[in-house]
Design goal:
The chain is an alpha+beta fold. It is 37% helix and 11% strand. It contains 15 helices and 10 strands. Helix 13 packs parallel to helix 15. Monomer.
């Protein structure tokens, strides 16, 4: 068995062999992060995400998620896809913008499988150990843990940033009862400096201050987590973004260093990186279910997919094709879809 002080470097090497970009052992001091989260919750900035207020102790104390946990291994998996240029799609009002992370296979299963393989590889080296793998699948402060593992710093847009990879990556963790030495390097410096590009570019002005996001105005929250009608005052600003939003990443200077992923599972499916709003709005539920199988788009149901697309069509250049598509859904059984179609028709001057 290798000495424990050698294990962090070996874990990093094993992780990279499995396709991860980086790995580190996190310090488990998270009290300041809990205070930050509690203030955010107290101000109601979480919107309908009541789950964010549950299990705060488990978020801060890893042994609450897996009894006996002594160490957390934090891992980074890069995902920037070889996709149609994002800004070109945003600038084309006829096309649907889908967040780059959601164009290919849902990362959860892929990452979970690799985390389990890494846990087993560690077991081969040191013997049986109790562990649990997380892929955004439990109440964990994953960005704070990754920061504590020296994988980057938390930027003004509340995302983890890395000097070599920007923010185009997923995070995962292994909670283990092995007493692994935490990364001895100095914490990653905050390299945001005086830059405010991410704050300034937000279409709905969702950042109330650096490092503070009002989820109720965030397009990612609205198009994925929010149920019911979108606030009227935000609909025009949503533009053609139908699932998530990458604006604060697209302008981040550090993302110029992110390299496109070679991971085939993250490649765009069904031409979704260039698809037209009208085309997607025409999918019936059976088509929706078939074409989104195994994708993060399944965070939605068909009705919310249509609701989001109706907003995009309301903001699209006027055309007979757009009007016909909207009128075809005017009597949809879902009230939210009908209401957003009515709004879209009014925006098109055809209410």
């Amino acid at each position: 068995m290798p000495p424990f002080y050698e294990l962090p470097q070996r874990i990093k090497a094993w992780a990279q062999e499995l396709g991860f970009a980086d790995a580190g052992i996190a310090e488990l001091s998270l009290d300041a992060d809990r205070d930050h989260l509690q203030r955010w919750l107290d101000e109601g900035l979480h919107g309908q995400m009541a789950f964010m207020g549950r299990d705060l102790d488990k978020r801060v104390h890893p042994e609450g998620l897996r009894p006996g946990t002594l160490s957390v291994i934090s891992l980074r998996l890069d995902y920037r896809p070889q996709a149609e240029a994002a800004q070109a799609v945003l600038d084309d009002g006829e096309r649907a913008y889908i967040s780059r992370y959601a164009l290919g296979r849902d990362y959860h299963k892929l990452m979970r499988g690799r985390l389990l393989k890494l846990g087993a590889r560690l077991e081969q080296a040191v013997g049986p150990h109790g562990y649990r793998v997380l892929t955004d699948s439990a109440p964990a402060l994953e960005k704070a843990l990754a920061r504590n593992a020296r994988l980057g710093w938390i930027g003004k847009n509340t995302l983890l940033l890395n000097r070599k990879a920007g923010s185009w990556f997923f995070l995962g963790e292994i909670y283990t009862d092995l007493p692994l030495p935490a990364n001895a390097q100095a914490p990653s410096s905050n390299h945001c400096g005086s830059c405010s590009a991410c704050l300034d570019v937000c279409p709905t002005k969702a950042f109330v201050a650096p490092y503070r996001l009002d989820a109720r105005k965030c397009i990612s929250y609205l198009t994925i987590e929010h149920r019911g009608a979108f606030p009227l005052e935000l609909r025009a600003a949503i533009g053609n973004r139908v699932f998530g939003c990458d604006d604060c990443q697209l302008v981040c200077p550090w993302n110029r260093y992110a390299q496109p992923t070679a991971e085939a599972d993250f490649a765009p499916r069904h031409g979704l990186d260039t698809a037209k709003l009208v085309e997607l709005f025409g999918w019936d539920e059976a088509t929706w279910l078939r074409k989104t199988e195994g994708m993060a788009l399944r965070r939605l149901d068909h009705a919310r997919w249509l609701r989001n697309l109706a907003i995009g069509l309301g903001n699209a250049p006027r055309s007979n094709e757009v009007l016909s598509a909207l009128r075809a859904r005017a009597e949809h059984p879902d009230e939210a879809v009908r209401e957003h179609v009515r709004w879209a028709l009014e925006q098109q001057g055809a209410g």
